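Homework-ish question, so no full write-ups if that breaks the rules, but can someone show me the predicted structure for this set?
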Amino acid sequence: AQSVTQPDIHITVSEGASLELRCNYSYGATPYLFWYVQSPGQGLQLLLKYFSGDTLVQGIKGFEAEFKRSQSSFNLRKPSVHWSDAAEYFCAVGVSGGSYIPTFGRGTSLIVHP
Amino acid sequence: DAGVTQSPTHLIKTRGQQVTLRCSPKSGHDTVSWYQQALGQGPQFIFQYYEEEERQRGNFPDRFSGHQFPNYSSELNVNALLLGDSALYLCASSLGPKGAAEAFFGQGTRLTVV
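A: Not a homework solution, just the prediction itself:
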């Protein structure tokens, strides 16, 4: 079965600084990979997804993620963080040709200092 | 477009009681998936409904059941509530089961069992 590890429970950055949130997955074949964001009291919103092709994926709100097969990673990046980016971020993996139900990591809480 | 709507927003129940949560999918979507998100955790898949049938199920006991209506809306029922059922319950809708990983999420129902 597939699984996702988000090693950082909390990340604190200053507004305007760059951001990288880590995600490692476990799955034997090429997975589908996703990043979601959850603002306080809100549901999840899909930031970006990787199915195949270009390993650098652009998403909404200025986020991007890079799929690295050799490292089983799909880290999320943003060059300059805004205070409104403070939220919970979830990495998820789906099985290609399988159930299409994403398996979520436990999330990383992003704190942005002014 | 109202997106995915869930009701109620918050709910407090007593151990042993039964609860029903409701979800209206995004316009044009025909598939509804339910997730349980415990505090500090990522969402965990409960089950998915498509064409008024349960299509897939996660690792949840039979106390968790559901229904989908002809208008694609859905209910999640939980019987014999336990304290451990306290969580945010998320509904996600998609166009077809294969769209589950790119589903639109509702804001959730916060269930507290006392």
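Now go work out the reasoning yourself. Hint: Chain A has a mean pLDDT of 92.
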